[in-house]
Amino acid sequence: MPSDVSPTTTAAPSSGRDLLEDSKLSGFHRRLTLYSAGGPFLDGLILSVIGVALTQVGPKWRLGGAWEGLLAASALVGLLVGGMVFGWVTDRYGRHIMYTIDLAAIVVFSVAQAFVTGPEQLLVLRFLVGVAVGADYPIATSLLAEFSPRRHRGAMLGMLTVMWSVGSAAAYFLGDWMLGFGENGWRWLLASPAVPAAILVLLRLGTPESPRWLLAQGRTAEAEAVMKKVFGPSATLDDIRVPDRPARFSAVFRGAYGRRTFFVSVFWACSIMPIYAIYSFAPQLLRALGLADASDGNLGSAAIALVFMVGCVVFLPVLARYGRRPLLIVSFAVATVPLLLLGAFPDMPPLAAGTLFALYAIAIGGPTLLQWIYPNELFPTEIRATAVGVGTGFSRVAAAIGTFLTPIALDTWGIGATMLLAGGVSVIGVLVSVAMAPETLGRSLESSSAV
């Protein structure tokens, strides 16, 4: 009978080496990392192009701040639904089944955006493309985590965050180019994610199922076949632990796992809420701070996205050497300071404002890296994707609220109060991290997820 407490595990007779945890980094690992990182790349691209597109379509359709906020937030609400629903689907039916279907949906919905005739149609399609993107997080991150060796897991999952920043930067460069196509340039821009999504569908074909998930389902022969395909004919299932009793969906909300879900959801939400608001409305925020005018707002936004990427890359070796907990707390605290200063002194010289923006973008790289690492390491195989989906869902609720309120706050209270609100959210994330962040560096998935 299913149990909602920590599952017990069994293992095959020990050979002293778990291939999944202790294998060397191979070409298969690198390809899987690249293919899995395609989802976050598309997320950064899809969620950032709307802010650029609205600079053209907003005046064309005479949209106010509320409509612009709804259009920017609709994909985030879709991410909530996609993460919550398909996290459970991934744990129930497997990782690789949805590994290509979700990207095919992104192709369809992205192309459809080029043919909308009003904000209502665009709102629905932005929601649907968000569902498809949200579905990819639990699918791709669970599959990657369950194949990655413990020594490289942080870097492999962290690369997904780096690619998110690359996708966002690409959105602003594409926007600066495609809006020059004429009054319908925004249509080409919103459809542009279909191209990389279609390429990724082809690349992901043939990706094997997770041996851990297969073992959890009692499909031992299939798990052994995958191990031999990936690691060679001598590979075995020795020392790979599997649950005796599957956990219920409710396990992510109860007891020790419930506390972990609370921690993951809150720190993720508090770190991502200001980020998404900045990415979605970077041109407007930069102009409000006097850092760009209408002609170079997109390029300035691309520069910010690239600095975000630099922050993620800088912290990758720190993550592997000093651990998860100190990186989260210190970088989160440092990232909070610029937001509060920008809010307290909105009329500071542009050079000072730009420096603080850059400091925030670099420092927030620490918490951003851990958004996909912690939920994959803190929950067992049978509820891992569900936990990632729940964390994704809660974080996107916060991001949707922040994205919706940002243009309204700018219109109503100005840039100072808007940045102070972002700083206050960040403070909450720091406090929760200090109180609850665990250390998982160097531990196997079975060890780090045990309670």
General description of the model:
It is a single chain. By secondary structure, this protein is mainly alpha-helical. The protein is built from 19 helices and two strands. The chain has a two-stranded antiparallel ribbon with strand order 1-2.
Relevant terms:
disordered N terminus, mainly alpha, 451 residues
Mean residue pLDDT:
84
Q: How does the helix and strand content classify structurally?
A: mainly alpha
**Morphology call:** globular
Please provide the ordered H/E string of secondary-structure elements: EHHHHHHHHHHEHHHHHHHHH
- Rg (C-alpha, Å): 21 Å
**Biggest β-sheet, characterized?**
2 strands, antiparallel
Low-pLDDT ranges: 1-16
Number of distinct helices = 19
Q: What's the multimeric state?
A: single chain
Instruction: Report the β-strand fraction as a percent range.
Output: under 5%
> Which range best describes the helical content: under 10%, 10-25%, 25-40%, 40-55%, 55-70% or over 70%?
over 70%
Overall number of strands: 2
Separation, N- and C-terminal Cα atoms: 20 Å
Q: Order of strands in the sheet with the most strands? A: 1-2
How are the secondary structure elements laid out?
Layout: E1 9-10, H1 19-22, H2 27-61, H3 65-93, H4 98-112, H5 119-147, H6 153-178, H7 185-191, H8 194-204, H9 211-216, H10 220-231, E2 242-243, H11 255-280, H12 282-288, H13 297-322, H14 324-344, H15 350-363, H16 365-377, H17 381-412, H18 415-436, H19 445-449
Helix pairs in contact: 2-3, 2-5, 2-6, 2-7, 2-8, 3-5, 3-17, 4-5, 4-8, 5-16, 5-17, 6-7, 6-13, 6-16, 11-16, 11-17, 11-18, 12-13, 13-15, 13-16, 14-15, 14-16, 14-18, 16-17, 17-18
